[in-house]
Each structure stands twice: as structure tokens, then as C-alpha cells.
Amino acid sequence: MFQTVPEGAPVLTAEAMRAAEERAIAEGSSVAELMEHAGTGVADWVHRLAAGSEVLILCGPGNNGGDGYVAARALAHRGVPVRVAALGEPKTEAAAQARAAWGEPVESLSGETEAAPVLVDALFGTGLTRAIDATLAETMRRLVAAARLSFAVDLPSGVDADAGNTFGCDLPGYDLTLALGALKPAHLLLPAGASSRTVRLVEIGLGEIDGPVRTLERPGIAAPRRDAHKYSRGMVVVISGPMHGASELAARAAYRAGAGYVLLLTGGLPNPPHAIVRQRWSEGALDDERIGAVVTGPGLGRDDRAREKLDAALASDRALVIDGDALHLLDLDMLKDRAAPVVLTPHAGEFDALFGAGQGSKIDRALDGARRANAVVVFKGADTVMAAPDGRVTVAPMGNSWLSVAGTGDVLAGAIAAMLAQSSVDALGAASAGVWLHGTAARMLDRCFLADELADALALAYERAR
Ligand SMILES: NC(=O)C1=CN([C@@H]2O[C@H](COP(=O)(O)OP(=O)(O)OC[C@H]3O[C@@H](n4cnc5c(N)ncnc54)[C@H](OP(=O)(O)O)[C@@H]3O)[C@@H](O)[C@H]2O)[C@@H](O)CC1
Ligand SMILES: [K+]
């Protein structure tokens, strides 16, 4: 299971959406006009996919409900059988107008509401401020489960648009979420994002939308140039520790993600693949000017020897990927004055250990971490968020659930290092490309796999990255 969302699309908070709405109104539009676009855009999708089946639209009291009334009218106009069930009277002028224009009967939404084969949830969108009533949540779950096809208008009702939480409520999963004007954090962040397996954008007349937070996109990396040699393709050094396997995985992944030369600093025995060059750790090991990126952390351990290696990596002027154990040894002050790029790749536990538990959404926290560390932070999880100190953020769609297995983090560290070493993109671009390759490799396998196989599948993902 994984998520499909528009690639490279801006992600806006509820406040930024309201600002975009105000800009559009200042330029001559109106809420009613935007709502007309939104509702007809929803109706287009429903009409296309419902194939003539009866549609039940649930309308809430705000403008999300207003979109629902517009969609009902547009569908009925095209001859689709539509019923509307509402949660009380509209509370906004635009929604009241939309209901009046619908002009047909409106049922009162209750536990008795009869299900239909197609369900459209227009109860709440970006205006939800608190948990929805438990009885209402139960009714929603029942009606979504009974439908052959279910749509969420703008957002699944019951989610906090910015934080991506559900106020503790268990929400149903929709077939299609139609994001109005732009994506919101809750389309992507867990737990809310789990309700939106597929998200599509509906244009509502807000004009050009932009912002520093975007969804992950295909990195556009190419095959090696004709005049390429192993160093121009990127030399990656992986610093090993007592758990050799983790660093072996990172080294293998670096090759499969296109690095030209991978050196593993290890005391372990020579193992296949023999393409990985092995040397023992030594003081000047990172002096080679040709080194494009260094991975430290996978299998490093947390003892004095590990600290010594991390300190040497930090003292070098090489680009660094810091993962696993090294994140527990890292002092953020050590990164302050570093000129060469650093990518930190914490999962939730490592993130808390580094930055503290903190408030705000995963996007806010990743950004705060990046600024404090002066480094790109890849806050891993099923909903991986990458942030740079300059405020740019990339959010990956929910990853393939088979990734939840030991060693996949080591593979990611190797893939990011390969990107950092070989490409002309900056650290956020390298991190994003690494996450894209990693996620795409998992999608291509889409079964129970070993991290070794995932590392190898990066090469197949690379083929699709152009
Ligand atoms: N931005 C744009 O450009 C455009 C946005 N559009 C659409 O507008 C949507 C945002 O509309 P919105 O602001 O009216 O909020 P919405 O989500 O309908 O809900 C607010 C209502 O719900 C109520 N309420 C809240 N929590 C509740 C709870 N737990 N349980 C019960 N009630 C609760 C709240 O009442 P109150 O909190 O005052 O009690 C209020 O009445 C957006 O998602 C998109 O679909 C398009 O139409 C056009 C252009
Ligand atoms: K909704």
C-alpha cells in the first residue's frame, strides 16, 4: 500500500489557503465564484467515475458543505441521480446561496441515513477546529464503507488540515480525495494522510499558487555523461563500526544509486560485492579530495571509537550523511560553522533524541530542526519530510508499507550519499532524489523484501528517474 499524490505540488496551510482566497477576491473573484469552480470540479471527477450510480453528498455547515451543494447541482444537471444529506443549515452566505441554488430536498444526516453506491464527503474542510462528534464519525465510517466509491471534498472530514492529526478519531479511507486549489499538510502527514490514498488537485481559480513546501517529484537524474569516469560519477565513503552489515548495505546502495566508487572503511572481512573497496579506518582516511560524500552512522556504534570517527568526519570538509548511531552522538553545535553540506536522516526516535519532542506538525518540526542544525533534515517515517535551513521543504507521499523492515534506513543513507556525491543539486535536492529512488524501488518490489534487495532495486528506480 502506498499513496499517489501530485508531484512537485505546493502544500499550503489553512491560513495560506485563506490568504490565496483573499488575493483572488481582491483581484475580482468572489467566494461564490471559487465555490462554483470547486463544486463543478468535484462534480467532474464524480461524474467520470460514478458511471451513473446514485451519489450521496454529505454537506456540512461551512463552505466545504457549500462545495457539496454546488457539486450536487452540477451532477443533477448532467442526469446523475443525487441525494444530499446535511448537518444542519449552512452558516456562511456562500454555502447558503449554494444550497438555495441546489433547490432540491435535503435530508437530515443521521444514523438512519441510507447509504448509496457513491459517497461524497463535503462535511468539513480546512475550517475544522476540533474533533467531530463520535456518532457523526460512526455514520461517516458506515456510509463510506457501504459505498463502492468514496470521495473526500478538499479533505477527509475530521482532520486538522495543518497538523495532519485526526483529533484521536478513527477515520475511514477514501478512494479519492479532491484537494481544492492546493494540497494541505493533512493530505500527506500521518495519521490524517492515511485516509487519502489518492489525492488529485482541483483548480478553483486561485491563480498561481506557490510556497516553500512541495511534494516530492521525479528527480530528473540522467545516465552518466559520455566522458564520465568513476570519480566524476561520485566517490562515496562509508564509515563502518562494529555492526558491519548496516554499513555494507549503505555502501551497496550508494553503488546502486549511481556512485562511481564506493569505499567502505571497515575492519570486517572482504565480502561480496567485491566492487566495494575496503580499507581499515585511519586518521587521514577522509583526506582524499576526490571524496564526494561520506556516510557515517549505520552500524557505527556509540562508543569512544565511534565518536572519534564522527568527529573526524565533522572536521573534514566533505559532504556528510549522518544517520543511525551517529545521530545519538551528534552535538548540534558541531554543525553550526560547517560549510560543506550535511544531511541528517533521523527516524522519529532519533529526531526526538536530537531535537526534543517539540510542538507543531511534522513539517514544522523538520523545519525547526533544519534551522537549528544548519543542515538538511530528512525526518523519516511512512510520511518522510525533508527540510532545509533556508525554509524549503519536500514532503514525500506515504511510502510503501513493505519498507518497514530492518536495514532500509541504511539503504536510504547510501542512496542520499550517492546523490550528494555525484549530482550538481544542493543537499535538499540530493536528499529528495535519494528518497525518491528509495520509495520508487520499494514500489517496484511491492512485496516482502530484504534491505539488500531494496538496495539492488535502486538501480531499477534510477532508470525511471529521468
Ligand atoms: N479557501 C478557498 O479558497 C476556498 C475554500 N472552499 C472550501 O471551503 C472550505 C473551508 O470552509 P470553512 O472555512 O467554511 O470551513 P469548513 O471546513 O466548511 O467547516 C467550518 C464549519 O464547520 C464547523 N465546525 C468546525 N469544526 C466542527 C466540529 N468538530 N464539529 C461540528 N462543526 C464544526 C464550523 O463551525 P464553528 O467552529 O463556528 O462552530 C463551521 O461552521 C475548504 O475546505 C473548501 O472546501 C471553497 O468553497 C472555495 C474556495
Ligand atoms: K470533506
TrEMBL record:
Record Gene3D superfamilies: 3.40.1190.20, YjeF N-terminal domain
Catalyzed reactions per annotation: (6R)-NADHX = (6S)-NADHX; (6S)-NADHX + ADP = AMP + phosphate + NADH + H(+); (6S)-NADPHX + ADP = AMP + phosphate + NADPH + H(+); (6R)-NADPHX = (6S)-NADPHX
Annotated residues for binding of K(+): 64, 121, 157
Keywords from the named record: ATP-binding, Isomerase, Lyase, Metal-binding, Multifunctional enzyme, NAD, NADP, Nucleotide-binding, Potassium
Record-linked InterPro entries: Carbohydrate_kinase_pred_CS, CARKD, Nnr, Ribokinase-like, YjeF_N_dom, YjeF_N_dom_sf
Cofactor: K(+); Mg(2+)
PROSITE patterns: YJEF_C_2, YJEF_C_3, YJEF_N
Domain YjeF C-terminal: 213-465
Domain YjeF N-terminal: start-end pairs: 17-212
E.C. code: 4.2.1.136, 5.1.99.6
Manner of cofactor binding, per the entry note: Binds 1 potassium ion per subunit.
Binding site for (6S)-NADPHX: 63-67, 125-131, 154, 246, 299, 347, 410
Pfam families linked: Carb_kinase, YjeF_N
Residues binding AMP: 380-384, 409
Similarity section: In the C-terminal section; belongs to the NnrD/CARKD family.
PANTHER family for the chain: ATP-DEPENDENT (S)-NAD(P)H-HYDRATE DEHYDRATASE, ATP-DEPENDENT (S)-NAD(P)H-HYDRATE DEHYDRATASE FAMILY MEMBER
NCBIfam families hit by this protein: yjeF_cterm (TIGR00196), yjeF_nterm (TIGR00197)
Function: Catalyzes the epimerization of the S- and R-forms of NAD(P)HX, a damaged form of NAD(P)H that is a result of enzymatic or heat-dependent hydration. This is a prerequisite for the S-specific NAD(P)H-hydrate dehydratase to allow the repair of both epimers of NAD(P)HX. Catalyzes the dehydration of the S-form of NAD(P)HX at the expense of ADP, which is converted to AMP. Together with NAD(P)HX epimerase, which catalyzes the epimerization of the S- and R-forms, the enzyme allows the repair of both epimers of NAD(P)HX, a damaged form of NAD(P)H that is a result of enzymatic or heat-dependent hydration.
Subunit description: Homotetramer.
Protein known as: Bifunctional NAD(P)H-hydrate repair enzyme
The species this protein was found in: Sphingomonas plantiphila
Lineage of the organism: Bacteria, Pseudomonadati, Pseudomonadota, Alphaproteobacteria, Sphingomonadales
Gene from which this protein is expressed: nnrD
